[in-house]
Design brief:
The protein has five helices and 16 strands. It is of the alpha/beta class and about 240 residues long. It has a seven-stranded mixed β-sheet with strand order 3-6-9-12-14-15-16. A five-stranded parallel β-sheet has the order 1-4-7-10-13. A four-stranded parallel β-sheet has the order 2-5-8-11, with no helix packed on it.
Length: about 240
């Protein structure tokens, strides 16, 4: 390699390092802004930067994710596991996460390798974005922009959670949730969409009686048998 080629390589390397640093600092700034906007307990930028485990987890994830994209899988995983021990939050380096993710409290959060998270999402403690064990390739959920996942909720498999939707605390989501919806329960069901309650049959009075239905069926069969017997007798 000539001197000129060496110089060009060094310059390109330094420029890339500078871009990486700027992108990382910008992502940290986005995270701090997200915390300030969504956490009424946050008092200062210094407090958020130094004391918020969700911010520390995201700072480590950005570095690990860059290494993962470069094929440095061991180094990426080492950083993510170190962050897990320090913060209680496990984010696989292969996950795809947009800007402004706020992981509130964070202990016990798990985000799988093929999970995708859009911009300005909020995740509370104990949330799992995991797999079901039966899928290959894309195995983990996709959260579109502005999704909130409540404490202890589990979103499992390659399901999509639409923009602006909310997953209630301790819900278990196994199916797609449309945008601007609220899902609750185990398994989770959509109870609100676009601000309106989803119609549900909650009538506990006018419920078909299965025993009465079977008795009516038996009565009809007996009547048919009696008619056949009467016809034979007449014959």
């Amino acid at each position: 390699m000539s001197m000129k080629q060496t110089k060009n390589a060094v310059v390109a390397y330094l420029k890339q390092r500078k871009r990486n640093k700027e992108e990382w600092l910008e992502s940290v700034a986005d995270t701090i802004v997200a915390v300030k906007q969504r956490d009424p307990a946050a008092r200062s930028t210094a407090e958020i930067l130094l004391l918020y485990s969700g911010v520390h987890a995201m700072m480590a994830y950005r570095i690990a994710n860059r290494l993962h994209k470069q094929g440095k899988y061991f180094s990426a995983r080492a950083i993510s596991q170190a962050a897990r021990h320090l913060t209680g939050i496990e984010i696989h380096p292969g996950a795809t996460i947009g800007k402004g993710l706020f992981i509130d409290h964070g202990m016990g959060v798990v985000i799988g390798e093929t999970a995708e998270i859009g911009d300005n999402c909020t995740i509370y403690q104990g949330v799992t974005l995991g797999g079901t064990g039966k899928d290959v390739g894309k195995r983990h959920p996709t959260l579109e922009n502005n999704v909130m996942v409540g404490a202890g909720a589990k979103v499992l498999g390659p399901v999509r959670i639409g923009s602006g939707s909310k997953i209630a605390a301790n819900a278990v989501v196994l199916r797609e949730v449309p945008e601007n919806s609220t899902a609750v329960g185990i398994p989770a069901k959509v109870v609100r969409r676009n601000g309106e309650r989803v119609a549900a049959d909650l009538d506990q009075i006018h419920i078909p009686d299965p025993v009465a239905q079977e008795l009516r069926k038996l009565r009809a069969e007996l009547q048919a048998v009696e008619e056949q017997i009467n016809k034979l007798d007449k014959a």
